[in-house]
Description:
By secondary structure, this protein is of the alpha+beta class. The chain has a single domain (about 5-405), classed as CATH 1.10.630.10. Helix content is about 45%, strand content about 10%. It has helices at about 35-45, 65-70, 105-115, 115-140, 145-150, 155-160, 170-180, 185-210, 215-220, 230-260, 265-270, 275-290, 320-325, 360-375, and strands at about 50, 60, 75-80, 145, 300, 305, 310, 315-320, 380, 390, 395-400, 400-405. The strands form 4 sheets. Strands 1-2-8-5-3 form a 5-stranded mixed beta sheet. It has a 3-stranded antiparallel beta sheet with strand order 4-12-9. Strand 1 and strand 2 form a beta hairpin. Helix 4 packs across helix 6 (about 155-160), helix 7 crosses helix 8 (about 185-210) and helix 8 (about 185-210) crosses helix 10. The chain is globular, with a radius of gyration of 21 Å. The relative contact order is 0.17. Residues about 1-10 have low confidence and may be disordered.
Amino acid sequence: MQTIADTTVHRPDHIPAELVRDFDLYDIPGSADDVQAAFAAIQQACPDIFWTPHNGGHWVATRGDDIIAMQRDFGHFSHKHIVLPPMPEGTPRQIPLEMDPPEHARYRRPLMQALMPAIVAELESTVRDVAIAAIEKVLPQGECEFIEDFAKVLPIHVFLELVNLPLADKAVLLPLAEDSVRGRDAETRLRAHMEMGAYLIDKVRARRDNPGNDLLSKLVNVDLGDGRISEKEAVDYATLVLFGGLDTVAGMIGFIARFLALNPGHRRQLVKRLDDDAYLKNAIEELIRRHGLANTARVIVEDFDYNGVHFRAGDRILPANLFVGIDDRLNDAPLVVDFERAKPVHAAFGNGAHACPGAVLARREVRIFLQEWLSRIPDFQIRPETRPILATGMVNGVLRLELVWP
């Protein structure tokens, strides 16, 4: 990737010309074939930290050690604004994601409590039943469009049950989630948030008046110590959680299914050892490492120097999670999937105060997908003459994946 000439780039005067690169998060060369390999090419070709004029102009950190440090250092790298390009002024905060400690902890606590390992374990039979039903439905057909027929069915069914919302509402909710996490412009994302808020307002009011034991009731009645969360904050909080619950696990399952369709050797390894818990656990970490999803931005809090780079207060930076898993300084041959890898290093679920509270549930859903799908459909491939449709953005994803089997 070549340095852009000064005459074609508007850059702040504190950014050296030699650190400017032509990087667009929504249009990465090669991403139509392999999203994570396309990011790896950027990582290899660019400085560890560089600046791009695209999407409002922002820094990009490409190396795992820096990214992990930035994820943990909220004193310098704030979550105040996490999307690129920046949302319009006055846009409601994404609660609790666009909060820093200590404020963040008060809002996050009920989400963590609702997704603790013991509670997720109680959901296992439900998750497994949903997976089996979805697989049995497509099994006799010898084909499916995997994203609509399975990847979205499993996590969305489980999540809507967690928040006690009608499964039929997924037809309304899924397009909004897609626009929120992969909308190319701020207007598209803002419209999705406003429409989700309009959908939720009556439901939030009902749960505040008569709380139940569901996750949504817990979120919209958070006790902040000096009173409960306001109605507006409750709607904003519920909006963020629904967008996260409706999209990210589906994306991860989609990437894994695509990989296994393209790599029969790896697929056979898993089929042979589906009952080996330790092996399967490590294999899942390796698959997650190789197929990173989320990309959350940060705002520089104050002027300071970091590893030879001068940051100015208000600068935005993208320490993209997936760069950690594909960093050859942390993982040997990082684009190679090795189920025997001793310690897959990744940041797919973030680090520090903002580590993903849904990580336990996500891993459980991936494991159940592998066990139930591969025990019924051990041999499958991408339909000839079709190509998976992949997307990059704030959350990478697989939009379409046509599979066939004998």
